[in-house]
Amino acid sequence: MMVSIVGCLATVAYAAEGTATYYTPPYVPSACYGYENKGVMIAAASDALWNNRAACGKRYRVRCIGATNQGIPQPCKSGSVVVTIVDYCPPGCQGTIDLSQEAFSQIADPNAGKIRIQYTPA
């Protein structure tokens, strides 16, 4: 039991917070994989995660933790989504992670446009 508790504490301690937006198809070409289709549970990394392409292929578990605006005060849905970084969200990107529309819709109301998130390596 102690191992489980320590494992949970390590996961919580490593969780980072940021914001997420979403982008719509087509998802190819991407900065990481060109015209290779990587499905729809994907995301683009902002400068905070990109690290000169080192983010390519990394997977993150993303969970909505709250609103960023007054328009949709409670945008979050329960649960989380695991996404793979396949693209770069260029300077001026409005979120830490730019989720595919499908991934964003799994964890939040798309009408919110931008949400507060917690993310951990998956």
Architecture overview:
The chain has a six-stranded mixed barrel. The protein is built from three helices and six strands, in the order αββαβββαβ. It is 20% helix and 33% strand. It has one domain (16-121): RlpA-like domain (Barwin-like endoglucanases, Beta Barrel), CATH 2.40.40. The longest helix has 13 residues, at 2-14.
Describe the structure in brief.
With 122 residues, this protein is α/β, with parallel strands linked by helices.
Query: Major sheet: order of its strands?
Result: 1-5-2-4-3-6
How many runs of DSSP E, i.e. beta strands?
Answer: 6
> If you consult CATH, what is the topology?
Barwin-like endoglucanases
CATH superfamily: RlpA-like domain
Cα radius of gyration in angstroms: 15 Å
What is the name of the CATH class?
Answer: Mainly Beta
Distance between the termini: 22 Å
Number of helices: 3
Regions with little confidence, pLDDT below 50 for 5+ residues: 1-11
Spell out the key features of this protein.
single chain, 122 residues, alpha/beta, Barwin-like endoglucanases, six-stranded mixed β-barrel, 3 helices, 6 strands, 20% helix, disordered N terminus, EGC1/2, RlpA-like_DPBB, secreted
